[in-house]
Amino acid sequence: MGKAVTIPKAEQEKMKDMFKINQFNLMASDMIALNRSLPDVRLDGKLENYVRMLEVPVRVLRMEQRSGLIRARLRGAAATKGQVITFLDAHCECTTGWLEPLLARIKEDRCKSKVFPDDLPTTSVVIVFHNEAWSTLLRTVHSVITRSPRHLLLEILLVDDASERVLHKLTCYPSTGLVGVPRKAVVCPIIDVISDETFEYMAGSDMTYGGFNWKLNFRWYPVPQREMDRRKGDRTIPV
Predict the structure, then answer these.
(1) Which of 146, 132, 40 minimizes the C-alpha distance to 93?
(2) What is the pLDDT of residues 75-108, one digit of tens each?
(3) Which of 35, 101, 141, 203 is the most exposed, having the fewest neighbouring CB atoms within 10 Å of its CB?
(4) Where are the alpha helices (DSSP H) in 4-133?
């Protein structure tokens, strides 16, 4: 899992042309299995037909017109049934153990123990996409299913924000937030990196945290020294 893809020199020009479609190395993405630990999967048919075969309930919601990320997420949120809503980008891959600490933080508003309680709330995962490459979209779905405890993952909702490219067949075949009860609790994990050129997985840094400036632009900020002192070198303690 997570190894880089090397494109042969003879394919470099084609790779550059395909890069323009989604602004990442689509050729490399198409060379990676949807579930990196399993053989490649070929899809023949519509997205709705494919997700019916998955072990977790997956629903596809389609916006009638392009509405933007926030409105599409709100549409998905309105249709959820879980106790907690998890928003996930359509080109992410979840790592093992990604979900439990987020739900524990929501439930208790603290993470004093690394042993998570058995009565964590269920979650609905909302994934919005617009003209997303299917290989990255479905890899995101598979990573959620295979790396989430089944009793915590109630459903996945795919919200199509009026995609213009209607793909019915594969050729070859990362901002996460939680909103739950209490409503004031919002959690964001450390976001690791997947190279847009080779799709290599690289662990993120716990020395920065995400936030918004006064222009509402998302930025990464250094963790203050007081927080580093409070955590006493324990990277699992939330900032």
Answers:
(1) 146
(2) 999 999 999 999 999 988 888 888 988 888 877 6
(3) 203
(4) 12-22, 26-30, 47-51, 69-78, 100-108
